[in-house]
Design goal:
The structure holds two protein chains of two kinds. Chain A is of the alpha+beta class. Chain A has two domains: 57 residues, no CATH class; 87 residues, Glutaredoxin, CATH 3.40.30.10. Chain A contains seven helices and five strands; from the N terminus they run ααααβααββββα. In chain A, strand 2 and strand 3 form a beta hairpin. Chain A is elongated, with a radius of gyration of 18 Å. Chain B is α/β, with parallel strands linked by helices. In chain B, strand 10 and strand 11 form a beta hairpin. Chain B is globular. Classes of the chains: A alpha+beta, B alpha/beta. At the A-B interface, helix 2, helix 4, helix 5 and strand 5 of A face helix 1, strand 12, strand 16 and helix 17 of B.
Chain lengths: 164, 518
Amino acid sequence: MNHSQEWAPQAIQAEVDALKHKPGALLPILHALQDRIGFIPEAAVPIIADALHQTRAEVHGVISFYHHFRTTPPGRHVVQICRAEACQSVGARQLEAHAKARLGVDYHQTTADREITLEAVYCLGNCACGPSIRVDDSVRGRVTPEAFDELIDELQTRPLEVMG
Amino acid sequence: MSVRVYVPRDTTALSLGADTIASRLEREATARGQPITLVRNGSRGLSWLEPLVEVDTPIGRFAYGPVAPGDVTALLDSGLLEGSVSHPLAQGPTEEIDYLARQQRLTFARIGITDPLSIEDYRAHNGFCGLEAALQREPQDIVEEVKASGLRGRGGAAFPTGIKWQTVLDTPADQKYIVCNADEGDSGTFADRLVMECDPYMLIEGMAIAGLAVGATQGYIYLRSEYPLAKEILDEAIRRAEQAGYLGDDLRDSGRAFHLEVRLGAGAYICGEETSLLESLEGKRGLVRFKPPLPAIEGLFGRPTVVNNVLSLAAVPFILAEGAEAYASHGMGRSRGTLALQLAGNVRRGGLVELAFGTTLRTLMEAFGGGTASGRTLRAVQVGGPLCAYLPESQWDMPLDYETFAEVGAGVGHGGVVMFDDSVDMAEQARFSMEFCKVESCGKCTPCRIGSTRGVEVIDRIRANDNREANLALLSDLCETMVDGSLCAMGGMTPFPVQSALKHFSEDFQRTANGDRS
C-alpha cells in the first residue's frame, strides 16, 4: 500500500462524482476513497453528504459502523492477524501475542516508524492452512512466529530496495 | 509440443507460495530446454496438498504436493514433466487421490480442473448448459425444477430455495433483484471463496438462471472485503461473460436481460445476515431489519429480492442442466443433494469435501481429515461456524443432516468443520464466542448488544473463581435471554457454542484462567 497524501477536495469530489449515480452508492464511494487515499479524510464527509443528499451524521455513522474504514492514515503496510476459531486451533493466539510483542503495538495501532499497522481480522477463508495473516492484499498461510519475523524484516527493508 | 503444467492461483495456494513456484517452474524448465505451458488453474480443494502442481501426461493429470518453492529443482530432476512418481511429493494421477476419488462432486465438479477465467474451459466442462436450458423454459417451470431438487439454503438457514423463488416470482414489481450473499464470514468456511476464485462462471450462471426464474434483471454479489482475489476474479469473469452474451441486455439473443455487479462489504460479520446485508447494499449501516416484511416481498430498495448464499446459487446450474432428480437422488431425509463440507482448524488433511448428506463427522474427520495436525487427541469440533455448538466425541457419529443436527441443538450451518485437539480450553472458546458477538453485534437489540458484553464479564469471573457457582447460573440465564430475546441469529445463536461448552466440557470452567490441565 503506497498511498500518496493527495486528498485535495477536488480529488475527493471527482471520486464521489464518478460513483454517486449508483444505487446505494455510499459504500462504493468510501471504498474508492480509502483505496486511493488510504483512509477516509474528515474533509470527505461533507462532500459525500452533499452529493448523496444525506446528513453528515448519516455518512459518519456508516464510516464508523464498518471495521474496514479508517479515518486516520495507516502505516505503509497493514498486517491483519486472523483471530477466528480455525486459526485459534492451530496457534493464532500465540502468534497474536508474538506479533504484538515484536511490533510493540496493539491492534489498531501503527509502529513508531509508520511502517506497519496491526489489525485483527475474523477469518480470511484460509482455514485449512492457518494460522493466516493478510499483508495488504496478500494472504499468508501456516504462519509461525519465525515466519512472521522474517516477513516483518522483509517489509521493513523494502524501502532501501526502492531507493537503490 | 510443450508440456502443460498447472499451478493453482486460489488464495490458499498463493498463501503458500504458488506464484514463486510457478515462476521458478517456468524459468527452470526453459533453462533445461523443456519450456512448459503454464496454466494457472483453480484449486482442487485439497488444501493439505497445496500448492498442488499438476502435469498433463498422455494418461491424464499427475499431481505433486504440497510443493514448496525450494522443491522445484528436485521435482524437475525427478522427471516431473514426464509424470514421474519417484519424488516423495508425487501423488500419482490426480483423479485417483483417495481424498478426491471418494467425494461426490456435483457443484464442485470443475474446480481445479479449469482455468477459472476461461469461458472456453467452462463450456467444455458443461458450463452454461443450465442457463441454455433455462432460456427455453417458462419462469414457473424453472422454479418448479428448483423446488423438485429439494435444494435448501446453504448459508445455514436451510430454507427451501424454490419456495423463496416462488414468493419473489409471485410478487409483482417494476424491479426485482437477485442478491448473492458472499459475505462468507464463518470461521472454518471457504467453499464460497473456492466457487468465486475457481469457478466464477458457475455463480454467474446460477444468478442469471435465478433472474430468469423470478423476473429480476439486476443482480448483486455482496462480497466480503476480506476476499480481494475473489473480487478481482469475479469482476473479470463478469466482464467476459458480458462480452460473450451470458450477461447484459440480451442473454444469448433471447431478448431477456440480466446485469450483475460485485459490491464489497466492509468487514462487518453481521452483514452476512440477509436484512443487514440489504441495508449495507443500500449504503447504510448494517443494522438488522425486523421481519416481516420478508426480503422476498420487500427486499433491496423495497423491491422483491431473492437473497441466496453462493453455494445455493452455485448448485442451480447443475439442477437445470441435469434435472432435479439427478440432484435430489443424493442425500437423506429432507436434506437433498450434496453438502460442501470444509475441514479446517487442527486437521492433518484439511480441505473441501463435497458429499451427499448423511455421512458422519467421524468419517469426515478421520477418513478424510486423518485426525489432528498436531497429532494430539481430537477433543472438540465446531460445525457450522462461530454461532454453532461445539460437539464432543459422543456426537461424532450422527449423520450430517439438517434435522438430525437440529435435534441435538447443533447446526450444519455453512458446512465448516473446525477441529480442536486436547490442548483447547473450552472456557476460553466460550469467552471468545461472547467477545466476537460484542465486536460484531450491530447494536440494534439489547440482548445481543449488552448481553455479549456481560457474557464476557461473567465468563471472566467464572474463570477467576469469583463466586463461580452463582456466576455459572447467571451465565445460563443470560444465554437463555439472548436466545429468546435477540432480533437475529447473531445474538440468538451466540449462546449455542457457550451452552455446548458448559454442557459437554464443564470441567474447563472449574479451573482458573491460567490453570494447568492435568
